[in-house]
User: Which sequence fits this backbone?
């Protein structure tokens, strides 16, 4: 993962002009998927090139019906490595998506939290599916500076927070969301739940934290000023995060 982190850092910095010194992460640049559709493939492809690996975009990761996951499949943004035995699943969540509603499992596997995608991927890998990755990586775009016109879906659509918190979120999305998302993921890794083990059998009381050496969950956060890596093997301990300042070039 250290090589992936360095490759992503270098790729972001190499695209400084196109990323407008990080401003492309702000709401004004989310219209018509300008960031997610046009910019993320550019630096993702450069990450794969720096790693000397293949990259495929928008690849289906179907889930067996018996898993009872809310969605029947995941569309992985980027699969990096040999498609028959990939190294990374790489998901990019721009500012309108890097919110708690996507990372809060609360109603069982049909609640549509994306963390269930990770659970199902681990189960598939444990059962012998070689198309599942060694690392499941999310890049969260969370500016650590004031913004305006924030699409506060957590409050307006999902009612997780009061709408009165919007000024607080807009003051610094990173400060508000980064630890909340990682805490939710930490609790998800620690929770006792059904899992398929390496023998292909269902365990009634397994923990995803015990499978980080098989398919590790990793969060990378880009704040516009720095890139942060937080790893599932460390249970997202802030003291063990890797933080590097971004050197945007004019």
Assistant:
């Amino acid at each position: 993962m250290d090589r992936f982190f360095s490759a992503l850092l270098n790729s972001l910095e190499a695209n400084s002009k196109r990323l407008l010194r990080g401003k492309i992460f702000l709401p004004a640049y989310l219209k018509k998927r300008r960031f997610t559709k046009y910019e993320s493939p550019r630096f993702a492809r450069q990450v794969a090139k720096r790693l000397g690996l293949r990259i495929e975009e928008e690849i289906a990761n179907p889930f067996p019906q018996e898993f009872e996951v809310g969605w029947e499949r995941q569309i992985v943004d980027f699969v990096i490595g040999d498609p028959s035995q990939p190294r990374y699943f790489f998901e990019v969540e721009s500012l309108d998506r890097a919110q708690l509603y996507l990372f809060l499992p609360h109603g069982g596997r049909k609640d549509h939290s994306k963390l269930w995608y990770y659970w199902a991927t681990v189960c598939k890998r444990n059962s012998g599916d070689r198309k599942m990755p060694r690392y499941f990586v999310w890049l969260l775009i969370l500016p650590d500076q004031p913004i305006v016109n924030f699409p506060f879906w957590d409050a307006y659509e999902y009612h997780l927070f009061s709408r009165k918190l919007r000024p607080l979120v807009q003051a610094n999305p990173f400060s508000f969301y980064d630890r909340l998302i990682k805490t939710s993921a930490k609790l998800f890794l620690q929770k006792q739940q059904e899992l398929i083990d390496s023998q292909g059998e269902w365990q009634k009381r397994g923990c995803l934290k015990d499978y980080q050496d098989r398919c590790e969950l990793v969060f990378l956060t880009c704040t516009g000023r720095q890139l942060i890596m937080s790893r599932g093997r460390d249970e997202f301990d802030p003291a063990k995060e890797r933080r590097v300042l971004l050197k945007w070039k004019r």
